[in-house]
């Protein structure tokens, strides 16, 4: 019976096609001088909070748009729109990541040539979004203190595809056994070039350094 069943490996093909579309998209964004930041993290790590902090710090200097991606619901786009920037919500309809085609549709719905910075808040998880290039100029991720300092050991791919790691919720450090130095060592072993920022979106501590890094990157583009 099993002789009749054909097994077809599609994952590699899907990823190769996606990479091609992502490359083209990134080229177009560079020409347009629109900086796309792909922000990834677990649910609840503080993606929307960091997006809001970033908007508050940069909206006088940069024209910002936000693309919120979720399996369902509009709540994040509604929160972000209140900050006075262009926001759209992508509903992935069950998909646990954004691929380059979805990002392209989202960007088409925004007036990107009037924007300096578009932040993509990717779907919350540390697995699938790491596998799909989005066309972003830079990938950033958040690891929040309550998640634990062992996450680089468990989700190495995510830490390896990111240019920046933001350790968020540092206001929880004194209640937690999270070891920042151990975490840094683990992350740098996977990705020696990654930039690491320690912030609290609650107290605002450390946000200035993150915002300054992002601003410089957008300016360079
Ligand atoms: N204590 C503390 N709470 C935070 C911090 N950043 C975010 N939160 C809270 O964590 C929860 C999830 O944040 P949210 O930004 O929605 O996470 P997202 O699911 O990754 O977008 C919310 O209740 C936030 O208020 C932080 O730095 N410190
Ligand atoms: Mg969110």
Describe the protein's topology:
Layout: H1 11-32, E1 35-40, H2 47-58, E2 64-70, H3 75-81, E3 86-91, H4 100-108, E4 117-121, H5 128-131, E5 138-144, H6 151-154, H7 156-161, E6 164-168, H8 180-190, E7 195-198, H9 207-220
Parallel strand pairs: 1-4, 1-5, 2-3, 2-4, 5-6, 6-7
Helix pairs in contact: 2-9
Magnesium ion is lined by residues 47-48, 76, 121.
Strands of the biggest beta sheet: in what spatial order?
Answer: 3-2-4-1-5-6-7
Give the helix tally: 9
- Write out the distinct hetero groups bound to the structure: guanosine-5'-diphosphate, magnesium ion
- The name CATH uses for the topology is Rossmann fold
Helix content: 40-55%
Rg from alpha-carbon coordinates: 18 Å
CATH architecture: 3-Layer(aba) Sandwich
As for the number of domains, it is: 1
In N-to-C order, the SSE pattern is HEHEHEHEHEHHEHEH
- The proportion of residues in beta strands is 15-25%
Which stretches of 5+ consecutive residues score pLDDT under 50? none
Q: State the CATH superfamily name.
A: P-loop containing nucleotide triphosphate hydrolases
Average pLDDT reading: 95
Strand elements, count: 7
Shape: globular
Give your account of this protein's structure.
The chain has 221 residues and is α/β, with parallel strands linked by helices. The chain has a single domain (8-220), classed as Rossmann fold, CATH 3.40.50. The chain has helices at residues 11-32, 47-58, 75-81, 100-108, 128-131, 151-154, 156-161, 180-190, 207-220; strands at residues 35-40, 64-70, 86-91, 117-121, 138-144, 164-168, 195-198. It has a seven-stranded parallel β-sheet, with helices on both faces. Strand 2 (64-70), helix 3 and strand 3 (86-91) form a beta-alpha-beta unit. It is globular. The N and C termini lie far apart (58 Å). Residues 47-48, 76, 121 line the site of magnesium ion (MG). Guanosine-5'-diphosphate is lined by residues 41, 43-49, 124, 168-169, 171-172, 200-202.
């Amino acid at each position: 019976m099993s002789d009749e069943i054909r097994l077809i490996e599609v994952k590699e093909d899907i990823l190769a096609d996606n990479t091609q579309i992502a490359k083209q998209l990134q080229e177009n964004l560079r020409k347009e001088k629109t900086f796309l930041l792909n922000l990834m993290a677990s649910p609840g790590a503080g993606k929307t909070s960091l997006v809001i902090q970033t908007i508050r710090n940069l909206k006088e200097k940069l024209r910002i748009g936000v693309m919120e991606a979720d399996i369902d619901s509009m709540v994040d786009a509604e929160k972000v729109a209140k900050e006075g920037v262009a926001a759209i919500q992508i509903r992935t309809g069950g998909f646990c990541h954004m691929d380059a085609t979805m990002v392209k549709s989202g960007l088409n719905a925004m007036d990107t040539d009037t924007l300096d910075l578009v932040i993509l808040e990717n779907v919350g998880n540390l697995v699938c979004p790491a596998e799909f290039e989005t066309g972003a100029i830079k990938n950033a991720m958040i690891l929040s203190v309550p998640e634990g300092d062992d996450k680089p050991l468990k989700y190495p791919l995510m830490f390896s595809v990111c240019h920046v790691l933001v350790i968020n919720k540092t206001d929880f450090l004194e209640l937690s056994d999270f070891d920042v130095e151990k975490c840094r060592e683990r992350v740098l072993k996977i990705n020696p070039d990654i930039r690491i920022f320690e912030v609290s979106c609650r107290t605002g501590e450390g946000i200035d350094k993150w915002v300054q890094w992002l601003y410089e990157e957008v300016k360079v583009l």
